[in-house]
Sequence to fold (305 residues):
Amino acid sequence: MTTADTTPPLRIGLLGTGPWARNTQAPALAAHPGVELSGVWGRRAEAADALAAAHGTRAYTGEEGIDALLEASDAVAFALPPDVQAPLAVRAAEAGCHLLMDKPVATTVAGARAVAEAAEKAGVASVVFCTLRFAPETAAWIAEQTAVGGWFTARAQWLGSLYAAGSASEYADSPWRREKGGLWDVGPHALSVLIPVLGEVERLTAAAGPADTTHLILRHTSGASSTVTLGLSAPPGAAGVEMELRGERGTASVPGWAGAETAFRGAVDALAEAVRTGVPHACDARFGLHLTELLAAAEEQAQAG
Fold:
């Protein structure tokens, strides 16, 4: 005879109503069997009302709405620009809410450090959503390659065509993406794969390429080196994601993955596990701070020429 699971659902509120919230986070949270979508907050009341109605929850807006949503939630998920996310994440942690953040945590080291310190002080769990760390196919591949070891070098290219001529992507309207480019938008994804497999970055060199493209050369604590090319302005025919490792046992290439919504459900599971056990996830706010430090150093080098 089995006993029914009586664990109450994790009440997660959603901050943000843009394309990422509509297309990925709200559907994933509303459909998750272990989650109650406790509400949606947006700066525009009509957008919050529409998204909340689509998923059977309550809408919040205004400053008082943030406090009300935090009070009604065990955790909050963020679908906001990074430098809007960071101070609200500090506020949420101080209110006792666990944090499910988007990458990058912030675009300044000070902003990311404030989040990490607030989460640690409040004793709340945190997860930073770097897609490949949570998509089942790529998460398993990362774990397998980390266990294999013996890697000599790696090559990663993450090129989007968000800003290519003729692009109609609704994500191209994001001011922070246009300002910060591929380094900050897709750089966290690449680094979140390379670091667990090859070790921490002990030396970094960065140079600017065409449009918003940035090239990185990394030296890792394992002794391996890696090269990374990041950008959002590639011609459509040149866009794509490739990651290849080379080492003692030959080569290994990152597999494809099912999509962002499936990966986000994996991040929700990871947060729930961290809440339940009290054991920090490897991709937490402290790791988010580390990524921000690396990206800020790369940006400074690339801009200096």
